[in-house]
């Protein structure tokens, strides 16, 4: 009886292993079939040995058609994609604190146009309005005054768990009246850079070529404070940086500094 029981158990285990192997093969086959069926508008032969590289690029930043009849479904995951519309090419970017849709290029007035729909440009902040950040900017302005004659820097980080902005001081490795260097902090998975602050000391607030280089390719609000110190004329400059595109943001000086009223 024991021998029969052992044979039965061995046969059962072998059968279970065969079933498991078959299920694995079936699952992999389904996954492969879905991957092959996924539309990718790439003008290349799929048997080209370099085709997988283009597939990876396409998947990281796809181009999609905006529907003319159905409802437009916005990007939900963190990342970006390009939108082909009847009016032109748009870029859509999603970050935990930001959803932005902006036009990159217009179609020719006389040339052919894709038979697609249209999309409305938008800039949507998870924290509502930029005014929510102004108390932190005001606190930074006081720190920047104390750092004179040198430049100063700090970050404002969006905490997805708390659904709030937090102020993050930076470790400055070197600073002078013309330049500042700091270590980029390592953020937690639920944190993301939202506002990058730095000062120009007594010099006016503006975005220098170095600022342009530092901001290229990033998604953040960049802010500069200037005209600090006794006798200076305070000034501010704000812009939204979107992967090389910059969108000026209007922030009055009086929202950051207490500007004395004329006598």
From TrEMBL:
Residues 137-230 form the JAB domain. Residues 52-125 form the DUF2016 domain. Keywords: Hydrolase, Metal-binding, Metalloprotease, Protease, Zinc. It comes from the Bacteria. This is PRTRC system protein A. It comes from Paraburkholderia caffeinilytica.
């Amino acid at each position: 009886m024991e021998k029969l029981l052992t044979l039965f158990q061995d046969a059962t285990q072998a059968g279970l292993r065969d079933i498991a192997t078959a299920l694995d093969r079936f699952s992999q086959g389904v996954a492969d079939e879905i991957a092959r069926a996924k539309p990718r508008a790439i003008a290349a032969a799929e048997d080209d040995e370099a085709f997988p590289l283009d597939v990876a690029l396409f998947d990281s930043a796809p181009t999609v058609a905006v529907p003319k009849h159905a409802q437009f479904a916005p990007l939900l995951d963190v990342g970006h994609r390009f939108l082909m519309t009847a009016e032109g090419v748009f870029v859509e970017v999603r970050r935990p604190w930001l959803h932005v849709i902006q036009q990159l290029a217009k179609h020719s007035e006389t040339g052919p146009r894709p038979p697609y729909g249209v999309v409305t440009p938008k800039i949507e902040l998870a924290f509502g309005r930029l005014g929510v950040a102004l108390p932190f900017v005001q606190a930074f302005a006081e720190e920047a005054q104390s750092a004179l004659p040198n430049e100063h820097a700090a970050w404002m980080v969006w905490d997805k768990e708390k659904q709030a902005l937090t102020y993050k001081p930076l470790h400055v490795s070197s600073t002078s009246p013309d330049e500042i260097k700091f270590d980029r902090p390592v953020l937690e998975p639920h944190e993301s850079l939202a506002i990058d602050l730095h000062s120009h000391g007594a010099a006016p607030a503006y975005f220098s070529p170095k600022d342009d280089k530092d901001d290229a390719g990033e998604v953040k609000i960049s802010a500069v404070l200037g005209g600090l110190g006794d006798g200076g004329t305070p000034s501010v400059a704000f812009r939204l940086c979107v992967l090389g595109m910059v969108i000026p943001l209007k922030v009055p000086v009086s929202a950051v500094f207490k500007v004395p009223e004329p006598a």
